[in-house]
Specification:
Length: 419
């Protein structure tokens, strides 16, 4: 049997790669306009980065990480999420000495050993953004607005925003006791494994899919109802900023994130098209994360969104994305060599151009151009070559024009080409 891609992974073929390139392009433009610099962290980190940053009681650390010892006996882990490595880099490189907030973004693969599902894979790619050094609630709103604009610019349909607060340390202690008291009263209704783990982080029970757990949590006390005055004010300021920016949201008191480092603002975007597993991206504030990794005690806020989830949400709307802008169809193999400089110049001008290979007839080249989604076909036969022109055909309208060789790029661009 021929080798296959490992379970939970897959190959990205050219059609999907075009969609992913469009997502990266939008992310790159928006991150730059919002003042974020790109950061690249190693694919594997010391395991302690995730044990200390994400939390040893989380499912990620307990069950989902790809961890191994290298030849020197050091425990290393393939990156399961993006925030802790960026926080580690912020601390390691003394970025707290820079003007704050420091805004960083990344596009990188993540690795988790979990059950593969539609749009969720053991190796998946994520766009993320992190801002360190400010506890201003308006920064939280800015991050949410940035992610909302990513989805809007890409045309992701049916996107909804859920938002809540995880409170501050003064909130979490008393609330944890309230919640544990509620769970103790209903302990017999909970599965044994949940009872064994609920003291590690009882908030995580809000996110469990087990029907028995959901029933117990339905009337559990809500963190939003038990915020300190300071945490409440922070939350209200975030909501006010979102309203002023025209961003619609649903306040969800049961919303929790699966990582231990979150404090105060938490949010999640869902997409109606994705069905039951509707989450497409989210994030929140993590004011103690950098300190937990040995850095200074600075606040932070960020988000992550999955490339595969966005691609799945876009669905059929991406099926017609062209691979090329124009197709150069030379009908006489004898003159193809002389048009190589023109092909180079069109590509240098920013057009995506493919050329028919020697031996193909015009009909075969037109089929090839159509299959690539080319908007224009530049046809050059012996007559056109002798006259120094090309016949440029608009594949959408069928219109044709004779264009001088030196003005092909200008013609295509003026008619709606990409360059």
């Amino acid at each position: 049997m021929a080798p296959r891609a490992p379970k939970g992974t897959r190959d990205v073929l050219p059609a999907e790669a075009r969609v992913r390139a469009a997502i990266e392009g939008v992310a790159t433009d928006l991150m730059a306009s919002h003042g974020f610099g790109r950061i690249v962290t190693p694919t594997f980190e010391e395991t302690a980065v995730f044990e200390r940053g994400v939390g040893t009681a989380t499912d990620i650390v307990r069950k989902e990480m790809y961890t191994f010892d290298d030849r020197a006996g050091r425990s290393l882990t393939l990156r399961p999420e993006g925030t802790a490595p960026v926080a580690r880099a912020y601390a390691e490189h003394g970025m707290h000495k820079l003007p704050q907030p420091v805004k960083l973004w990344y596009l990188a693969p993540m690795f988790r050993y979990e059950a593969p599902q539609s749009g969720r894979f053991r190796e998946h790619w994520q766009v993320g953004a992190e801002a360190f050094g400010s506890e201003d609630p308006l920064l939280d709103a800015e991050m949410i607005a940035l992610l909302a604009e990513v989805y809007e610019r890409l045309g992701v349909p049916g996107v909804r925003l859920r938002i809540s607060s995880m409170g501050d340390p003064d909130t979490r202690g008393p609330y944890r006791e309230l919640l544990l008291a509620h769970l103790a009263r209903h302990g017999n209704a909970l599965p044994q494994d949940v009872r064994d783990r609920m003291h590690d982080n009882p908030l995580r029970l809000f996110d469990m899919k087990d029907d028995a757990v959901r029933s117990v949590m339905a009337d559990a006390p809500r963190l939003l109802d038990n915020l300190t005055d300071e945490a409440r004010e922070h939350h209200e300021r975030v909501l006010e900023a979102l309203r002023l920016m025209g961003i619609t949201y649903e306040e969800d008191p049961a919303l929790v994130r699966g990582l231990d480092y979150y404090t105060r603002t938490v949010f999640e975007f869902t997409c109606d098209r994705l069905g039951a597993q509707a989450g497409i991206g989210g994030g929140g504030r993590y004011d103690g994360l950098v300190a937990s990794l040995g850095g200074p005690d600075v606040p932070g806020v960020g988000f992550g969104t999955g490339i595969e989830r966005i691609t799945l949400a876009l669905g059929d709307e991406t099926s017609g994305m062209p691979l090329v802008d124009a197709y150069l169809a030379i009908t006489d193999a004898g003159i193809r060599m002389e048009w190589m400089p023109a092909l180079r110049d069109l590509r240098r001008a920013g057009l995506r151009v493919e050329a028919g290979t020697a031996g193909k007839g015009l009909k075969a080249m037109m089929r090839h151009a159509s299959g690539l989604g080319a908007r224009y076909v530049v046809i050059v036969g012996p007559r056109e070559h002798a006259d120094g022109v090309a016949t440029v055909r608009d594949m959408q309208t069928g219109d044709q024009s004779e264009v001088p060789m030196g003005r092909i790029q200008e013609h295509i661009t003026a008619a709606g080409g990409q360059a």
